[in-house]
């Protein structure tokens, strides 16, 4: 019959809308006489459109209907199809996902009835149900037909979502169990004499043993045989071998109905070269003496499934103790890693990116990681001894062996990858783990996984996302050297062999494994008590070093500290017995150059790392008390200042170490969540330490030159970041010096004495020594470098009254007494308060001048070639932008708002917000940018060992900065993007609030 064009166009459009890719062919199939009774039924078209491949489903349906024996059978099928939604969804779902099962239905057209039943017992069948499904099979050919019929019902539940991936895989394993039992029964029936002589147990291994089988997979088995009572053992084993071989052929051989699956016994002792069947005692002897690590790993999934189940259970119980002590074997973790690397290396280069099972981020990554964790921790925790990957992963997460978030992400990724694997294999029932390349295949798979809008694009994205998750977490779990440590810390002396270390170092991120190995050999070789303790410590320490941006530097630093302190009785005892000390030391040594440099100048400071309270910065009062007491005991100013600088170095290390540990976090305590608190703690600590050092130096100079009393009162005024309690690790100390002759003293002599004090302080604080120098910068004084270094209070008053410029008033906002005569310091502050907080604020000319100065500084002081978006001090939205904005508000409103009268930037900004001088949102933006830029400068100094205002160009140094700022490995780009975004937002606020744009 000719179809009118209008109707054809309407049907064509409907077919397109329902997901058909070849509507013309679909129209012809719908017009097939076989479908005449249902072609106009809207439910049929909707159901076809819901399948993974509507074209394939329709073709399979036509073939099935045409294959029915007569019209009565065809009407029965079509009537049931239209009236029974469970059958419609199941049958069409299978036909749209599996060409192979469609072929089976065309050859066995009555088997569609297997999908009609929709009882609760049918939804989750077990071994018993599958055994009933195979009960009528009498030979290999009928067994294949019955197997496919059962497989049909599993696939139907799977594609319709009645079962999840774990349940579908378990059903496939149960069907395999029933099939092995049926095949063994056929073999026994064919050779009753052999059956009477032996007990034969079939042990499922691999995915079948783990209750997580694929649609098409080798079924791995091991056979255990024993003689029956009165039988000769050798004859019994030969009989058992014949039975086992016959059983394998029944499942593996191909006939007119194809094959079921290969039965693979190569996991048995000695592999293909060993006997197919062994006695239990022979198995035990082999595993006790000859078995390799991978063989114990394989036994994790051993499960009796067929034959003499009592013998099978005895086999599992006998070998279990060996399995759960395999992790104590030397080289256990490296062996497992070597297996994993060998698997990856054997994948053809052109298939690596498509390899779903063995490729990076694939199924095997998850399975290997889970199995290693089970072997390591399952010794003492039976709850994680499951053969199922998903069940074991859940138990590992519950038990705390894997982070809960990591476990959930791995679970999600593994379920997706297994679902993808199932859909790929289901199409032609072929054993493959390669993701297809054709659009039609990808479209069918994507739709089968519920991706209907853009199935190819969505599938590709999901696959890449999940493999990326697996790769990241696999590296974190599988290569964690902590596992090596745990594996070898059980009975007897823990031992780290150098060969095991050699194989692990590259995987752990060491850039120079040869040098790293030399360090390990120097630390751990020998029979001394020191070497024994190092061999206990090193596996754990290596794990912590591997978590850092520069494991090589960390290990080198550890060797240097150990060489310096190895003979002291307390050093290794501290690391061994105080868990926090060892981890803290590794964090400090591998975070950059500054901390190791400070520590190696006086390695005994490692003792500070044993107690969290020891990392708390000490206040100025305690520091001054210690330094001044040392000055009194010293013989001369140089010795006194050397002691003061030594205290400064020790306390600087304390501050640096505490900052690193709080920024990185440890296994017992998370990283500090508030970056502002971290920045403030460093600023306060370094500023207090600098003030105490200057106070001690001042006392030492006065004491040596004038005894107890200087002929003039003398005070040091902190300026800039020093006065603002915001010193960074690499900051100079900006100061002003003020003196006031004592009553009756000659003014010229007083001035000379004051000048000599300043010169001597500067000299002593910069003398070459093992301690870092402290640079004093007095360039903010009146007349700058052209003016005298020290003035009297009256001289300051005269200058400020007559010559003071607006920038000097701005600079004085940070003025705060830090050392010397307290009364004189307060008098100086009283003098400058009217300048920095002028009544009625600034005039328009002064505001314009400040803006002009800021614009000039931006144009002239930015280093040539520097990226203005990444310069922490002078760049867009950096420290200068924020501080000038805050200081302008202080100059304009400080006279009226007491909260603004502070030398600290963040406090002044908070006060301005509280006074409604700036919206809370803008204040938060400025505060975030200031804290971030401050921490970047601290990070650069920590990492490079010298001050800097820009991010490092070296990749490792940049990664170390990122780790300090809280970014995981591999997220340097995110750090730079976040910095640019944060400072860009801050600059927008500056444009509005400072420049009035």
How would you describe this structure to a colleague?
The chain has 997 residues and is mainly alpha-helical. Helices cover 61% and strands 5% of the residues. The protein is built from 45 helices and 10 strands. The strands form 2 sheets. Strands 1, 2, 3, 4 and 5 form a 5-stranded mixed sheet that branches. Strands 6, 7, 8, 9 and 10 form a 5-stranded mixed sheet that branches. Helix 22 (439-448) packs across helix 23. The radius of gyration is 39 Å and the shape is elongated. The chain starts with a helix and ends with a helix. The model is unreliable at 1-7 and 478-501 (pLDDT under 50).
Q: How many distinct helices? A: 45
Q: Oligomerization state of this entry?
A: single chain
Largest sheet: 5 strands, mixed
Helix content, binned percent: 55-70%
Beta-strand fraction estimate: 5-15%
* Gap from first CA to last CA: 78 Å
Please give the number of β-strands: 10
The radius of gyration computed from the alpha-carbon positions, rounded to a whole number of angstroms, is 39 Å
Helix-and-strand structural type: mainly alpha
Overall spatial form: elongated
Low-confidence stretches: 1-7, 478-501
- Whole-number average pLDDT? 88
In short:
With 997 residues, this protein is mainly α.
Topology:
Elements: H1 5-17, H2 23-30, H3 42-49, H4 54-67, H5 71-83, H6 85-97, H7 99-107, H8 120-123, H9 127-134, H10 140-159, H11 165-190, H12 192-197, E1 198-204, H13 206-209, E2 219-227, H14 233-252, E3 263-264, E4 277-278, H15 280-289, H16 293-298, E5 303-307, H17 309-323, H18 332-345, H19 363-377, H20 389-398, H21 404-428, H22 439-448, H23 455-478, H24 481-488, H25 498-505, H26 513-524, H27 529-546, H28 551-565, H29 571-577, H30 579-590, H31 594-601, H32 620-633, H33 637-664, H34 675-706, E6 712-718, H35 720-723, E7 733-741, H36 747-765, E8 776-777, E9 790-792, H37 793-802, H38 806-811, E10 816-820, H39 822-836, H40 844-860, H41 879-893, H42 905-914, H43 920-944, H44 955-964, H45 972-993
Parallel strand pairs: 2-3, 2-4, 7-8, 7-9
Antiparallel strand pairs: 1-2, 1-5, 6-7, 6-10
Helix pairs in contact: 1-2, 2-4, 4-6, 4-7, 5-6, 6-10, 9-11, 10-11, 11-14, 15-17, 18-25, 19-20, 19-23, 19-24, 20-21, 21-23, 22-23, 24-27, 25-26, 26-28, 27-28, 27-29, 27-30, 28-30, 29-30, 30-33, 31-33, 32-33, 32-34, 33-34, 34-36, 34-43, 41-42, 42-43, 43-44, 43-45
């Amino acid at each position: 019959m000719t179809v009118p064009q209008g109707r054809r166009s309407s049907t064509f459009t409907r077919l397109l809308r329902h997901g058909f890719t070849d509507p013309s062919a679909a129209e012809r199939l719908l017009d097939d006489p076989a479908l005449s009774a249902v072609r106009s039924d809207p439910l049929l078209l909707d159901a076809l459109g819901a399948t993974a491949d509507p074209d394939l489903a329709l073709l399979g349906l036509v073939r099935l209907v045409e294959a029915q024996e007569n019209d009565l059978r065809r009407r029965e099928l079509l009537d049931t199809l239209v009236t029974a939604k469970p059958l419609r969804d199941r049958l069409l779902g299978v036909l749209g996902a599996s060409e192979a099962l469609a072929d089976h239905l065309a050859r066995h057209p009555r088997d569609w009835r297997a999908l009609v039943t929709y009882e609760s017992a049918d939804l989750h069948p077990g071994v018993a149900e599958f055994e009933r499904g195979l009960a009528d099979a009498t030979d290999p050919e009928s067994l294949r037909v019955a197997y496919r019929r059962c497989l049909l019902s599993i696939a139907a539940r799977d594609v319709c979502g009645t079962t999840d991936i774990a349940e579908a895989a378990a059903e496939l394993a149960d069907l395999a169990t029933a099939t092995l039992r049926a095949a063994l029964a056929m073999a026994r029936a064919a050779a009753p004499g052999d059956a009477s002589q032996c007990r034969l147990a079939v042990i499922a291994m691999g995915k079948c043993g783990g209750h997580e089988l694929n649609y098409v997979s080798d079924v791995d088995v091991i056979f255990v045989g024993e003689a029956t009572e009165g039988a000769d053992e050798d004859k019994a084993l030969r009989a058992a071998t014949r039975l086992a071989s016959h059983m394998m052929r029944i499942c593996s051989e191909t006939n007119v109905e194809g094959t079921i699956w290969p039965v693979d016994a190569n996991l048995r002792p000695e592999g293909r070269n060993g006997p197919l069947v062994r006695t239990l005692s022979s198995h035990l002897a082999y595993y006790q003496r000859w078995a390799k690590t991978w063989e114990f790993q394989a036994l994790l999934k051993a499960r009796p499934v067929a034959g003499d189940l009592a013998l099978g259970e005895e086999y599992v119980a006998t070998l279990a103790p060996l399995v759960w002590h395999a992790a104590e074997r030397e080289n256990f973790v490296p062996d497992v890693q070597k297996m994993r690397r060998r698997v990856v290396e054997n994948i053809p280069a052109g298939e690596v990116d498509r390899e779903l099972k063995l490729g990076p981020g694939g199924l095997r990554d998850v399975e290997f990681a889970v199995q290693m964790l089970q072997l390591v921790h399952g010794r003492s925790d039976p709850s994680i001894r499951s053969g199922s990957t998903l069940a074991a992963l859940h138990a590992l997460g519950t038990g705390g062996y894997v982070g809960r978030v990591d476990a959930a992400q791995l679970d999600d990724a593994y379920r997706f990858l297994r679902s993808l694997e199932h859909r790929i294999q289901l199409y032609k029932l072929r054993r493959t783990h390669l993701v297809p390349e054709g659009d039609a295949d990808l479209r069918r798979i994507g739709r089968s996984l519920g991706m209907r809008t853009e199935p190819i694009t969505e599938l590709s994205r999901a696959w890449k996302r999940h493999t990326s998750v697996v790769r990241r977490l696999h590296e974190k779990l599988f290569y964690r050297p902590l596992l090596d440590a745990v594996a070898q810390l059980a009975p007897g002396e823990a031992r780290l062999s150098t060969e095991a270390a050699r194989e692990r170092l590259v995987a752990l991120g060491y850039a120079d494994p040869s040098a790293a190995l030399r360090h390990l050999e120097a630390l751990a070789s020998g029979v001394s008590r020191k070497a024994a303790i190092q061999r206990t410590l090193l596996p754990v320490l290596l794990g912590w070093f591997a978590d850092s941006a520069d494991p090589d530097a960390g290990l080198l630093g550890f060797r240097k500290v150990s060489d310096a302190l190895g003979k002291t009785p307390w050093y290794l005892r501290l690391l061994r017995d105080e868990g926090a000390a060892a981890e803290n030391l590794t964090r400090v040594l591998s975070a950059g150059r500054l901390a190791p440099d400070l520590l190696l100048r006086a390695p005994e400071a490692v003792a500070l790392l044993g107690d969290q309270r020891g990392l708390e910065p000490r206040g100025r009062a305690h520091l001054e008390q210690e330094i001044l007491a040392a000055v009194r005991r010293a013989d001369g100013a140089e010795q006194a200042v050397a002691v003061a600088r030594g205290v400064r170095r020790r306390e600087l290390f304390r501050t640096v170490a505490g900052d690193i540990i709080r920024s990185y976090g440890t296994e017992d305590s998370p990283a500090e969540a508030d970056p502002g608190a971290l920045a403030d703690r460093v600023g306060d600590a370094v500023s207090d330490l600098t003030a105490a050092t200057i106070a001690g130096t001042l006392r030492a100079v006065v004491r040596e030159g004038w005894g107890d009393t200087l002929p003039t009162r003398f005070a040091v005024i902190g300026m800039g970041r020093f006065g603002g309690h915001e010193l960074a690790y690499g900051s100079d100390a900006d100061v002003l010096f003020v003196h006031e002759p004592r009553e009756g003293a000659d003014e010229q002599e007083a001035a000379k004495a004051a000048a000599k004090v300043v010169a001597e302080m500067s000299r002593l604080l910069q003398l070459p020594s093992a301690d870092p120098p402290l640079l004093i910068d007095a360039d903010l004084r009146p007349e700058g470098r052209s003016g005298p270094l020290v003035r009297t209070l009256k001289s300051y008053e005269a200058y400020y009254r007559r010559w003071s410029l607006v920038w000097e008033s701005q600079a004085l906002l940070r003025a705060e007494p830090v050392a010397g005569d307290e009364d004189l310091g307060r008098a100086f502050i009283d003098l400058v308060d009217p300048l920095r907080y002028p009544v009625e604020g600034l005039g328009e000319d002064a505001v314009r001048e400040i803006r002009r100065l800021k614009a000039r500084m931006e144009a002239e002081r930015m280093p040539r070639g520097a990226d203005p978006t990444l310069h922490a001090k002078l760049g867009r939205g950096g420290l200068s932008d924020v501080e000038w904005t805050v200081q302008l508000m202080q100059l304009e409103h400080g006279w009226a708002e007491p909260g603004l009268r502070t030398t600290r930037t963040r406090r002044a900004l908070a006060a301005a917000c509280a006074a409604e001088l700036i919206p809370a949102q803008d204040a938060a933006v400025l505060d975030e940018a200031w804290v971030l830029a401050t921490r970047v400068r601290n990070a650069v100094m920590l990492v490079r060992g010298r001050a800097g205002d820009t991010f490092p160009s070296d990749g490792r140094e940049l990664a170390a900065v990122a780790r300090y700022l809280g970014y995981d490995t591999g997220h340097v780009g995110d750090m730079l993007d976040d910095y640019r975004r944060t400072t860009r937002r801050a600059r927008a606020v500056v444009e509005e609030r400072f420049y009035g744009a």
